[in-house]
Design brief:
With 134 residues, this protein is α/β, with parallel strands linked by helices. The chain folds into two domains: 90 residues, no CATH class; 43 residues. The chain is 29% helix and 31% strand. The longest helix is centred in the last third of the chain and has 39 residues.
Length: 134
């Protein structure tokens, strides 16, 4: 395989983990593109990213933002895996249910905190309006 290109992303943090990437061409007809598949270092699930058109040369690796539902601000750096690396599998069964339960608990906590912040802002607005005689 040809040398992989790196995306010119200066905002990629050095703390983002590397993710070994399964690289394969995908698409149909003359429109072939690189499909980059990883096992996410944050949630353990299968994530796929595009790597550019096959006709343009080797795939574009480098920093990507994670597709995790529960780690949306996280990222990782795609690095080429060995040529015989199998395609990662999606989470199923117990691991998936555990991830969903943790995510649902996090979502409930975020909703609670957001509602409390909203109510505090309404209280402040009402107090300000009362001060000005509205």
């Amino acid at each position: 395989m040809a040398t992989q290109h790196q995306t010119p992303n200066t905002q990629a943090l050095e703390t983002n983990p590397e993710a070994l990437t399964h690289i394969e061409p995908s698409g149909w007809g003359k429109r072939q593109y690189w499909c980059l598949a990883i096992e996410c270092p944050h949630c353990g699930d299968l994530h796929t990213h595009g790597g550019g058109l096959v006709d343009d040369g080797s795939p574009t690796l480098g920093h990507r933002v994670a597709h995790c539902v529960y780690h949306p601000a996280e990222g990782y750096t795609l690095v080429a895996g060995p040529p015989d690396m199998p395609r990662p599998k999606a989470l199923k069964g117990l691991a998936y249910r555990k991830m969903r339960a943790e995510g649902d608990a996090l979502t409930a906590e975020l909703a609670r905190v957001s509602q409390a912040a909203y109510l505090r802002s309404v209280d402040r607005l009402e107090a300000t309006l009362a001060t000005v005689g509205y």
